[in-house]
Amino acid sequence: MNERINCLIIGSGPAGYTAAIYAARAGLKPVLYTGIEPGGQLMITTEVENYPGYPQGVQGPQMMEDFRMQAERFDTEIRYAIINKVDLTGPIHKAWTDAGDELEAHSIIISTGASAKWLGLESEKRLTNNGVSACAVCDGFFFRNMDVAVVGAGDTAAEEAMYLSKLCPTVHLIVRRDEMRASKIMQERVKNTANIKIHWNTETEEILGESEVEAMRLVNNKTGEKTTIPVKGFFVAIGHKPNTDIFKGWLDMDEAGYLIAKPGTSKTKIEGVFVSGDAADKVYRQAVTAAGTGCMAALDAERYLGEKGIV
Ligand code: NDP
């Protein structure tokens, strides 16, 4: 017979581990599958200074280690494997691991997160965490009083540029077309902020610097003209991709793939399946908000399993 789990948690970022802590303490005996990147996006962050309870700040990987240990302390079973298929047809949900094992679950908490999109430059990869970042709210503070760049032209790029404009003397916004995709109001804000300099029709050819970002070489894709501009921080804001492909066809999602929960809850349209964290959040995307929704999902799962008489 296949293994039957009360509460299957998919994903190991702040949402998944928080869900595990609550579910385990409620006696649900959760089993958590870590996914491809155990610890999630915080594993590629350095200092986290905005998570309450760490007055001195904490390294992202250390914080995730703390989350993991807290989840394990209450007997969460953590498995370092990937769930790559689900079947949500019946009241007992099915899931398959990358090793081909079939699982059955009375409830599932989805906390698969999202991944930042990157430009794909070698220098971008090499300098990630040494000036290259995908999160101004997380890392902007380290670049106060320094010139920085933001790549992108959507609402995220506009918000990041506005955020950084309060900390940095000049914010270079690098837009690949001659218009922005961001909402009108955000575009107006960006254009009316004196220290945001917009570079239209411009792409990044290279980020320069050996061990930290020193400058960027830009190219105008209309004229071919190249310019090198000194910056200390380089923020990539060209979108995120929620890790929700395996739920396509089963659950409601928006056109970008973000899962849609019933307002004010973690519930999906399928009974016993709950969402948390960045997989269902394209607006806030913070560790603390992910943890909050992980807690909601565990409480919703506990109530559901109680009502069904399963635990
Ligand atoms: P979007 O997909 O909206 O925008 C991505 C931007 O990045 C586009 O302008 C795109 O350019 C640009 N881009 C993509 N690839 C490259 C590349 N290789 N080089 C240079 N530029 C590139 O992503 P967002 O993260 O901005 O927003 C996602 C969703 O979340 C949107 O619906 C947005 O409205 C929403 N959101 C809402 C917020 C709010 O309500 N407060 C805050 C943040 C986001 P191009 O335009 O040329 O395709």
Question: Can you walk through the features of this model?
Answer:
The chain is α/β, with parallel strands linked by helices and 311 residues long. It is 24% helix and 26% strand. It has 7 helices and 19 strands. The longest helix is centred in the C-terminal third of the chain and has 21 residues, at 287-307. The relative contact order is 0.18. Bound molecules: NADPH dihydro-nicotinamide-adenine-dinucleotide phosphate. NADPH dihydro-nicotinamide-adenine-dinucleotide phosphate (NDP) is lined by residues 119, 151-157, 159, 176-177, 181, 238-240, 282-283.
What's the N-to-C terminus distance?
20 Å
Please report the first level of CATH classification, the CATH class of the largest domain: Alpha Beta
Counting structural domains, the number is 2
What is the level-2 CATH architecture name of the largest domain? 3-Layer(bba) Sandwich
| Assigned CATH superfamily of the largest domain | FAD/NAD(P)-binding domain
Largest sheet: 7 strands, mixed
* Distinct bound molecules: NADPH dihydro-nicotinamide-adenine-dinucleotide phosphate
Structural class: alpha/beta
User: Any idea of the CATH topology of the largest domain?
Assistant: FAD/NAD(P)-binding domain
Low-pLDDT stretches are none
Helix residue percentage: 10-25%
Number of strands: 19
> Treating each run of at least 4 consecutive H or I residues as one helix, how many helices?
7
Summed over residues and divided by their number, the pLDDT gives a mean of 96
Round the Cα radius of gyration to an integer and report it.
21 Å
Please tell me what the overall shape is. Answer: elongated
The ordered H/E elements are: EHEEEHEEEEEHEHEHEHEEEEEEEH
Strand content is 25-35%
